[in-house]
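Hi C.,

You asked whether I'd gotten around to modeling the 326-residue construct. I have! Everything is below, sequence then structure, no commentary in between.
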Amino acid sequence: MHPFTYTRVSDTREALNAARRGGRYIAGGTTLVDLMRETVERPEALVDIGALPLDKVTVTERGGLRIGALVTMSEAAAHPKVRTLYPVVSEALELSASAQLRNMATIGGNIMQRTRCAYFRDVTAACNRREPGTGCAAREGFNRTHAILGTSASCVATHPSDAAVAFAALEATVHLLGPDGERRIAFADFLLPPGSTPNREQALRQGELITAVEIPALPRPLKSGYLKVRDRQSYEFALTSAAVALHVRGGVIREARVAAGGVGTVPWKLPAVERHLVGERPSDSLWTAAAAQAAQGARPLQHNRFKVELLKRTVERQLRVVGGTK
């Protein structure tokens, strides 16, 4: 681990000033500290924001939920409003990590975490995400766990967050605070696909701080849930996952929100699946037909072709769980 300075701040003004001087924000530190230990990340200064007043879950005026950036994963998953209104978020959080990590890791840090690609974490391997212009060892290497959607010639790494898949499905908004004031950005625009600049992973401006993630009010009744498929049931990252939320009224699907994880360079919204569902009556045949659209645009690699079919089956299974069968 390389030397660094450490500053603990007590208000957002201090935090922004410290970041302006080149500091990196840290709260739970469950990802950043690991990367520093492996010398993948080498920040010269850390700004501890753990004491900032960003640790509340509140109901918005329109009936949505605003989850503070410093709410821990455990706190968010257990919050009565999250569990009642958006169980897909609770389930995604509880399937994300061990209890010990969930007690430390924050919502803001969870959506900011970097890929688990082994080549990214191996400082001797070529990785455009870690060191632009060096190449992508995963493209010709062992790429079983890598992405099949949203890839580019520069990078095929998946985004590891389960909670981010739920937020993407629900079309959440990220609240930011920076030197130029407050702004909001759609979750779909916050995490960036690699393109030719895989080292730029979020749409953050210099010195900006995540203050909250807001889930919009959605029509009721709303049923939702999260399914994670992995190599083992204990702490493991997804091979595929599916976040599903359905509003059914009068026996007809009025709204559908569906996203996938473990298969995309970012949490992958599935609009073709959603379009196939809206206006239809729940049925076994509908779930099968809708899920068949899930892998549109997939570009599998040598070792992860199985993910195409696995994605379809994962989406179909979770549609059945959330929507029921007849």
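If it helps when you're writing up: Residues 224-323 form a domain with the Enolase-like; domain 1 fold (CATH 3.30.390.50).

Thanks,
B.
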